[in-house]
Amino acid sequence: MPNILFTQRCVRSCPYCFAQKHMDESAPDDILSWENLIYIADFLEASGERRFAILGGEPTLHPEFNNFLSYLLERNFAITVFTSGIMSQHTLEEAADLCKPVPLERLNFICNVNNPEQTPTTPGELAAVRRFLTTFGERVTVSFNIYRLDFDLNFIFQCINEFGLQRTIRLGLAHPIPNQKNLCIAPADMGRVIDRLFSYQPLMERLRLKPGFDCGFPLCRLSDQQLAWLQRYTGGRFEFGCGPAIDIGPDMTVWSCFPLSSFHKKSIFEFNSLAEIHQYFRRLHDLVHVEAGGIFEECDSCRFREEQRCSGGCLAHLLAQFSQEAPLRLPEVYY
Asked: Are strands 3-5 and 247-248 parallel, antiparallel or unpaired?
């Protein structure tokens, strides 16, 4: 499912933000036009893709947000909106009316939250998020990016129970932006992060909450016992990949994912299908893995990589490492 940016502006300044470099290099008033939205919708439909993920910045800042939403629903796309939950009262009320007749599977929200006790948050932001969660409740899955080792998930459990949210927590690791500074989890600390996550295992089971993992968690840092619990509790094969997510900006540029937003960025007009975009960025990912199997030395001989269950961690860590070395590698792998 590709990610379509409605706008480059955001309402927060998260210290771990891995979209910051992209937004800094973009005009803040750069927003998706109707012409480009229609082109993207036609492009995805012709590619056989019926899912549409909406991002920003904060996508609800777009003055046509609800009209865009209505248009995509009329074209029978299944839509996921990634949001901070911080939006104007007018936008919130209009979106709520629009959503009422739409089945949950056709329209849902991923709300990225920060722990207000650990990340600077204003009272106005907290009030706006509460209004959003109250309004959309069962349509919302909470997302949380881990950027510090002493993270606390208890506030998320409280939100899920209080507002009747989906009982899955989307967990991601904050990743580095090559040649930039942002707070993130270093490879050496990933084992500590996983152990802290599993300290919440009994509470998750009691509350019947399931963890859903975003990219960047190397399987080798989970014990056999932890991996077995995840496979049993979440159901099915458990794996971590680092493949092209595909982000499409308002100016119609495409890139692999936000941490790699300057890594061989192209224009959507250079491709005939979504499959071609995936193939282009997959080739670049493969070239990086020719140079280094993963973020740890043992990735080269890891059984999880051989079984294609783990791709060796986030590519951004590898590109950051390459930038600190003498330029002796393939030229295509430099950021």
From this structure: parallel
